[in-house]
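User: I'm preparing a small set of examples for a lab meeting where we compare how different chains pack in three dimensions. I only have the primary sequence for this one, and I'd like the structure in token form so I can line it up with the others. Please keep the answer compact; I'll paste it straight into my notes.
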Amino acid sequence: MAQSENKRSIKDQVRREEAKLRKEDQGLNAAKKEGLKLPVIILGAFVYAFGINVFLQPLHLYSGGMMGFAQLIRYGLSNLGFSFNSVDITGLIYYLLNIPALYIATKRMRKRFIIKTIVAVSVVTFLLLLIPIPKAPILDSIIGNAMVAGLICGAGVGIILLMGACDGGVDLIGILLINKNGNTSVGRVSVIMNVILYGSMLFLFDAPTVIYSLIYSVFSSIATDRIHAQNISTQVTVLTKLPDTRDMEIEVMSRLNRGMTEIDANGIFTGEPVKMFIIFINKHEEGRLRGIIKAHDPNAFIVENEGVRIEGNFIRKLE
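Assistant: Understood. Below is the structure token output for the 319-residue chain.
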């Protein structure tokens, strides 16, 4: 009975602390916090657009996802005789294609995510029109150009995702799927969609164009998943000798909205009692968790194991 009452007390304290934090994270505080992310989102949009225009476009290769469809539509319009006075309209087509996806997202995602995503898509569109496309590839090797383009573009997309936004298109679909079903990733969804896209392109272009475009897509997806830290699951084991860990437990659970498993143990050499906590978070939360633990126990022993596979009731967060 006492243990049950203790658990109920902790739950009540966590809920009160969560309500307090939600109140603090509204109004001007929330606007200021999100405003600080916008410059980083713009940086990510620039990196992405730079990789597309400077490394991918001179090769006449095709990006994946929504950008790939935008390139295909531009290709089709050009073959039908439409002239755009040497202006690459891929960005404008990309923006138009994203409107339906953004509309669907407004029904399922938070307002601040939608606003940041609209900013990201708009900046990408503007930069694709602004950044000049070289007449010749930067590198002599086509494969080298495709790989570099993939890494740069994937890094740009990863930066945008890291800030709790999205560059639109297939990545937005991936975000929606993560929100509904945690057992996936943006990069994985992108690869699946791109296999379908490039498979259909085999009927329009020669095999080398499709193969090199697919190489770009794979490297882009790898870079995206490595930077999109919210998508990397981490198991954290904490060992502490604190006699009372309740304040630390409440702060972890309320600030990170993560559960904890507690195990009572003893040191083999010292025989001293030790508490061991097992916590599952994403990589993006590692720094915050480490800061909370160290604030309560500077001598705590912390082990982090990244890239673990988690099945069950694990919340995948976008921010």
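A couple of notes for your slides: The longest strand covers residues 273-282. The mean pLDDT is 79.

User: Perfect, thanks.
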